[in-house]
Amino acid sequence: MKKTLGYLMLAVLVACSDQITVRTDYDKSVKIAAFKTFAWLDKEGIEERNNPLYYNELNDRRIREATVAQLNARGYSLDPSAPQLKVHYHIVIEDKTQVRSDTYSPYWIKTERDVYTYREGTLIIDLMDAKNEMLLWRGWAISALSDTDQLSDELIRDAVTKIIEKLPPAEK
To answer: Largest Cα–Cα distance in the chain?
Structure first.
């Protein structure tokens, strides 16, 4: 019974992959909102040598389309001929382990321990100064993935939306 309950908890964790945690970091000396135009970093900048399950044309198109739509909604314009910002992304998929210990005595003695493994996906979006390609702003979204999850349209759109929501709107 306890083992079944543990597996149920793991299933809930994986099913909650729509639970996306977003973090950002940026150069506090630079006013990101002052930038108005962007372009993508050259194709050579993408980590093609990494796992082809995630770095492929389908995911590249999904990430780019979602990012352009969200940046446009924030007031930034795609301008490959004269960008002020360069956009780049990274995909990181890692195997993670979670240990759950149950206590059943009034003396807090651990009597049972369950170990679960799962995959955690991270999508990182970088904004760099187009003049020198120095990183100015980074946003990343983290989510647990089920064994059957690939990077679906919906998951990518949700992650990109939540990341770009943290970016200040471009000044008018």
So the answer is: 69
